[in-house]
Amino acid sequence: ATEQQIADQAPVDIRYPLNIDCEVIQNGFRERLLSELISMGMPLRARKNLKFHIVKHNVPEPYDVKWKVLNIGEEAEKRDCIRGQIFDDSGRQQVNESTTFKGDHLVECYILKNGVVVARDQVLVPISETV
Fold this sequence. Notes:
The protein has helices at 34-39, 74-78; strands at 18-25, 32-33, 44-45, 49-57, 64-72, 83-88, 94-98, 103-113, 116-129.
């Protein structure tokens, strides 16, 4: 019962495009974009560092950025690690996470202008193995 919905916090009126992606980082390996790995059919395993970032948007300043990280599935429930809280961006238009267990993970980004959500994107992070 930890997941929050953006519509409960602010009106939603999507007027602008927003694109986010994720850099997959692991010691000893070249950084890759999550979208590249998925398109190549490469499985994402646990023990990776992920840097989600805004790739493109055209919302005129000033605006606020918020994020949500949601863990989905049996393993997330078993570990009591669903998460899903919406939090403010640190000012860098990115959020850093790490993979620790198998299952789907969803990261959403919202841009608010004058208290209204005007842009939204999400990335599904399928983690196929725990090791």
